[in-house]
Amino acid sequence: MGGRIKGTLCLVASAFGFAAMGMFIRLADDLGGPVSCFQKGFFRNVIAAVIAAALFARNRPLRALGVSSSIPLLVLRSVLGTAGIFLNFYAISHMPLADAMMLNKLAPFFTVAFSWMFLGERLHVGQALCLCGALVGAACVVKPGFASATIFPAVCGLAGGIGAGGAYACVHALGRRRVDPSFIVLFFSVFSCIASVPFMVVDFAPMTPSQLASLVGAGAMAALGQFGVTAAYRHAEPRTIAAWDYTNILFAALFGLLLFGQVPDVWSVLGFVVIVLSAVVLLNCSGGKSSRKSKEERLME
User: Fold this and answer.
1) What is the pLDDT of residues 31-83, one digit of tens each?
2) b/e string for 44-66 if b means 16 or more Cβ within 10 A?
3) CA-CA distance, 249 to 129, in Å (whole number)?
4) Residue range 289-301, pLDDT digits in tens
5) How far is CA 293 from the centre of its chain?
6) What residues have CB less than 8 Å from 208, skipping those under 6 apart?
7) How crowded is residue 263: how many other Cβ atoms within 10 Å of its Cβ?
């Protein structure tokens, strides 16, 4: 029971960290002029790159396997993950925070779908039904045709979840090849920073000290989320605590209400409920071992 309590606390801390990351990303827009999602992504990934470099430097003698033959897969993971971050940050800046974070939570469902389509893993009927349920929930959040002003950011948020799901599937394949996780994080973080530079050069926005502090805070909170979820699944089995990961939505809704005056509508709340229920059922359909992998892969986010 002690391990389960520790795992729950770590997972709730992780959920808080990712919600706070989204809050800082959104807050940066209110502390000065508009800042592009590319510029936000750069600062978020610089901090991740520093942490990953330190971890890789420590572990390098222990795990240098499968890297040279996995470069194409590393690049694909980085392209999908980078696109997912940019799209998610755009959605956070242009729609209610809780809605944007919920759409990003669709990533595990798409990981299952991509693993079936491209990695040859079995897709059970229950998993397929959960995927359909998640898409229904996403439709409630996106509300196509209900509010034309927010439909594009919502589609971007959904696309960001798809990109993240594809990236996690790549991480799963890299894990089969026993590629060092810290190297995967380092490769992705450096790739994302480099990919951000051309867009920043074209559309760089000078930032106020408050905006810079906000983006540094976003990177720090992302690190809390990454290490929190890793620690959580070292202490407890995934299916015993995984539902607590969705406290992220509660934290995001609270930040949105208190800081930005955002109140989720009935359709969004309905979508949240459908997606969370689908996630709980998906976890039980997937089994403990595969669930552990998909959750630990959140370190690569």
Assistant:
1) 988 899 999 999 888 887 888 788 778 765 545 555 677 889 999 999 999 99
2) bbbbbbebbbebbeeeeeeeeee
3) 23
4) 444 444 444 444 4
5) 15
6) 31, 32
7) 11
Asked if 196 and 215 touch (Cβ cutoff 8 Å), the reply is: no
- Give the Cα separation of 135 and 205 in Å (integer): 36
Q: Is the pTM of this model over 0.85?
A: no
Secondary structure of the chain in HEC code, one letter for each residue: CHHHHHHHHHHHHHHHHHHHHHHHHHHHCCCCCCCCHHHHHHHHHHHHHHHHHHHHHHHCCCCCCCCHHHHHHHHHHHHHHHHHHHHHHHHHHHCCHHHHHHHHCCHHHHHHHHHHHHCCCCCCHHHHHHHHHHHHHHHHHHCCCCCHHHHHHHHHHHHHHHHHHHHHHHHHHHHHCCCCHHHHHHHHHHHHHHHHHHHHHHCCCCCCHHHHHHHHHHHHHHHHHHHHHHHHHHHCCHHHHHHHHHHHHHHHHHHHHHHHCCCCCHHHHHHHHHHHHHHHHHHHHHCHHHHHHHHHHHHHC
What are the tokens at 89?
């940050």
Q: Which residues have C-beta within 8 Å of that of residue 247, sequence separation ≥ 6?
A: 12, 15, 16
